[in-house]
Design brief:
The structure holds two protein chains of two kinds. Chain A is an all-alpha fold. Chain A has one domain. Chain A contains 13 helices and no strands. In chain A, helix 7 runs parallel beside helix 11. By secondary structure, chain B is mostly helical. Chain B contains seven helices and no strands. The two termini of chain B are 25 Å apart. Classes of the chains: A mainly alpha, B mainly alpha. Chains A and B meet through helix 6 and helix 7 of A and helix 1, helix 3 and helix 5 of B.
């Protein structure tokens, strides 16, 4: 169990950070109480991990072969990379960090599954693009439905809040299904856990992160989305959830933050306003290259350190 | 299906309807007080009707405060809270004008010369018609029962008519052979009465903007 601590820590920090992408809008604007959001998010994350998390685990564990020691190194390296990138304020993706760490281990093993890696990298690029395209489609579709319903202010508010709860819960399900692989796939690859135990432990650790440490992040990070009107925020959350869920079905863990940024950009295109600063886009591109690089350097360094032996002179 | 989840929203909605009913009552008593004043001048009956109008104006304030307090206890999305808050603040100026006009007549013991009484009655009738229409429009906004845009146009035309009448009455007052102090006093009264239609027009435009804003 102690050897899984790196993965559990990674899952905990993922839950604490990424819950804001699905319920941040609703909580920071006080449409939903934090505890309602946290309980819903952690329950649906666990459900998503249990019901849809296995294909991501298959993809990540197939990238290279692991020993138990390398699995622990990979999870610690990914956690360190996430921490460093967060300190630099870059939109860090746990998925990219984990893949980077696996890459580092793969270099050491001199064995990498390049076709699997290619699929993962294509999906990284596709995440913000998919979020953007889906946001445009979702916004237009929801707008057509909303405008045809002739609801009064109370009815439309109630409907909007219900939709935000449903979209947030769906987003949490997609987060669990997609991101659980980041937390425990390496341990499955090393034969330390079965796939079903991995999704359970991963789902629980992400849920724990949401319940114990996501309040502040939800209240502050969510405000970035609140600058959008509530209807646009709903379109963003739903587009992000669909994007992440699609990648969960494909079996590639992706970044929910990057899906959100893509979706906000999509809503901005429809409304003809600049919703994202150019700097944020530059940061995404930087993070695409830097996160896996930093994580693989950490994995290589940790492996090197663990192999150092004291030879008396 | 989810009605049990949104009890507070329903309570706010009911309070808004109660506020509008109260506004109608304030308007009825204002109208009666003005009729009484035009017919018999200031007296016991008129004082009673003024007190009644004041009572409904105060009750309107209380209901408005209850609505605001309930809205800010996490009812409705923030944008809607702001819209309703501003709308209520704007509507609430109408009963304030009723009260101010009556207190002005009562406090300053204003005497209206007979030759402008028919004009003032007509002016008041059109102004109060604006109020009726604006209450109907606000109800239509909350209940989605009729076209808001058509009501905006009707209220606007009534308000223009009121402006025209106001100018004519003031002109008649200053053409008449009267004490200049009384002229100024009457001019102020007519100006106050004109504020009713002006405010109704402002409320009507706010409702229209809020309605458009919510279209996506």
């Amino acid at each position: 169990m102690t050897s899984l601590l790196g993965g559990i820590f990674l899952g905990w920090s993922l839950g604490a950070n990424d819950a804001a992408n699905v319920f941040g809008t609703a909580v920071s604007s006080r449409m939903i109480k934090f505890w309602t959001a946290a309980i819903l998010a952690s329950s649906f994350v666990l459900a998503g991990a249990l019901l849809g998390g296995q294909s991501g685990i298959e993809t990540l564990k197939g990238l290279t072969r692991f020993t138990s020691n390398q699995a622990i190194i990979a999870s610690i390296a990914a956690a360190c990379a996430v921490t460093i990138m967060t300190l630099f304020g870059l939109p860090v993706s746990t998925s990219q960090a984990v893949v980077g760490a696996i890459l580092g281990v793969g270099i050491l093993n001199r064995q990498l599954n390049f076709s699997g890696l290619g699929k993962v990298v294509v999906c990284w690029v596709g995440t913000p693009v998919g979020g953007m395209v889906l946001a445009i489609i979702v916004y237009k579709l929801l707008a057509a439905i909303a405008n045809s319903m002739n609801l009064n202010i109370f009815q439309s508010d109630i409907l909007l809040r219900l939709c935000l709860i449903i979209a947030g819960s769906y987003g949490a399900y997609a987060l669990g299904a997609n991101n659980v692989a980041n937390v425990t796939a390496v341990f499955v690859g090393a034969g330390m856990l079965s796939a079903s135990a991995a999704v359970l432990i991963g789902g629980l650790s992400i849920g724990l992160g949401i319940l114990t440490f996501s309040k502040k992040v939800m209240e502050t990070v969510g405000q970035k989305l609140v600058r959008l009107d509530p209807f646009s925020a709903l379109a963003v959350v739903l587009a992000q959830a669909i994007t992440v869920h699609i990648y969960a079905l494909v079996g590639v863990p992706v970044s929910t933050s990057q899906a959100v940024i893509g979706a906000v950009l999509g809503v901005g295109i429809i409304k003809g306003v600049n919703t994202i600063q150019r700097r944020t886009l530059v940061n995404i591109f930087l993070a695409w290259f830097l996160t896996p690089f930093v994580a693989s350097v950490f994995a290589l360094s940790l492996d090197f350190v663990t192999h150092l032996r004291y030879i008396p002179g | 299906m989810f009605k049990f989840l949104f009890k507070k929203e329903r309570q706010v909605q009911e309070l808004i309807y109660r506020y509008l009913d109260n506004l109608k009552k304030a308007q009825e008593h204002f109208e009666k007080a003005m009729d009484c004043y035009f017919d018999f001048g200031l007296g016991e009956n008129c004082d009673f009707l003024i007190a009644q109008t004041h009572k409904f104006e105060s009750r309107a304030d209380d209901i408005r405060n209850d609505i605001i307090e309930m809205m800010y206890s996490k009812v409705l999305i923030p944008e809607s809270r702001g819209d309703i808050f501003r709308l209520l603040e704007s509507i609430d100026l109408i009963p304030n004008h009723f009260e101010a006009i009556l207190f002005m007549i009562q406090g300053q013991k204003i005497k209206v010369p007979d030759f402008i009484v028919p004009d003032l009655r007509e002016f008041m009738r059109v102004s109060l018609e604006c109020c009726d229409l604006v209450i109907r429009q606000v109800e239509a906004y909350f209940k989605k029962t009729e076209d808001i845009k058509a009501l905006v146009a009707t209220i606007d035309s009534h308000e223009s008519r009121c402006d025209h009448m106001e100018r004519e009455i003031v002109s008649k007052i200053f053409d008449a052979d009267m004490d200049p102090f009384q002229k100024m006093q009457l001019k102020e009264l007519v100006g106050r009465m004109g504020e009713i239609a002006d405010q109704a027009d402002r409320v009507s435009r706010s409702v229209y903007i809020i309605n458009i804003k919510r279209r996506v």
